[in-house]
Amino acid sequence: MANYIGAVDQGTTSTRFIVFDRSGRVVTIAQKEHEQIYPRPGWVEHDPEEIWQRTREVISEAMAKASLQPSDLAAIGITNQRETTVVWNRKTGKPVANALVWQDTRVADYVSELAKLGGQDRFRGKTGLPLTTYFSGLKILWILEQVKGVREMAEAGDVIFGNMDTFLIWHLTGGHKGGVHITDVTNASRTQLMNIETLSWDAEILEAFGIPQTMLPRIRSSSEVYAHVNEPALKDVAIAGILGDQQAALVGQTCFRAGEAKNTYGTGCFLLMNTGHRMFHSTCGLLTTVAYKLGNQPAHYALEGSIAITGALVQWMRDNLGLIETSSEIESLARSVADNGGVYFVPAFSGLYAPYWKDNARGVIAGLTRYANKGHLARAVLEATAFQTRDVVEAMQKDSTIKLDVLRADGGMVENELLMQFQADILNLPVVRPVTRDATTALGAAYMAGLAVGYFKDLDDLRSNWAVDRIWKPNLADAKREEMYCLWKQAVSKSFDWVR
User: Fold this and answer.
1) pLDDT tens per residue across span 163-183
2) How far is the C-alpha of 475 from the C-alpha of 491, rounded, in Å?
3) From the DSSP assignment, how many helices (H) and strands (E) are in the chain?
4) Fewest CB within a 10 Å sphere: which of 358, 370, 415, 446?
5) pTM (two decimals)
6) Nearest to 340 by CA among 367, 370, 380, 368
């Protein structure tokens, strides 16, 4: 019997392949970055072929590192950056354009045009999502309309669409020689083209967006055997789990009960609360999304607050301003001062996501005086992540009427102890970091695959793997907490309507 379970974790900045044992511990890992392409302000692209090549490389490297054979793996799962949109030729496998990344804002005019009939919430009842530049549907439309000849190819059935899960699975299972064209309910729920009650593509929305249904992958559950890998390093291994990255982190944190929530601190921040089989349609600027679907069982839903820029702000401090040489230096720079010195940083580089949904907002640094120095700016950068998280938590509690009692935290930024303490302080809630925190998304995809093939017995089997590494408890006076949050809200208001 196979001893291990694997996962491809295709993220915004890099791709990883990780192999886990039954206890959820990492056995082997390989990771490679890919290029971030910025053709114009607000435009963000990836080269899909580069990502496919990186995926092949990390699989081979991780397997070789631990001297593993395909027969050592019970199955693999796939987790991926959501909303990032690829359209490619089904006969050649070649993309017709670069992938449009979830952060890309080039479809803002389409948003305005569609909102004229029914407003920003025109499709929220069916999809759980507001009209915004974030989701895949309008990115597909842009490619159909702006890349020469693609509309005609789509009408002829020669080009197909997928988010990164679909693109990689198609290639892993044979590509133009019989590759499987599928996605799961979590990724489909982020296209703004799927009805989240019926879990099927919605003909009315497809017509409004001008997208042929023949382009779209078949929607499957998050945990079932879909196909087998055709690549040598994983030859004949079952692909048995698919989850969008944030849903994968929810599963990796074993948030299987209604009211359990996690926040993933990465390029952006993504806070999800499991709401069970019940959908809450947000009135507070959150997204209603599919959390996961186990085989033939009913889907579980979640409320989500998506924050565009958190870890990316630290990278901006490093790459654009040169104030730090490595991302990890932000903590020591921030600790060089006692507080933020009155400085607040609203990182609305591509607009604001939840709970504001202001595509025309832009970044603002407020409260600057001659007293402020780079340490205060560093502190404001970290605090921006925690403040944005509080914005989402408050909206989530209003929408669901569920009071959070703890926040589970994962992702790269949870190593920053100053940030985690301030997060607990500004939320007035304990923040918990699990033992497995850097590989939570991959672990969630591996869990889905493992359940499908019987490698894991049930959800209780997965819960038994979850272990606490550290808990931060709030340690800030109530008056100071509310004063700081009030100033944050004031700074946010200054970022609105910058682009006219």
Assistant:
1) 999 999 999 999 999 999 999
2) 24
3) 16, 23
4) 370
5) 0.88
6) 380
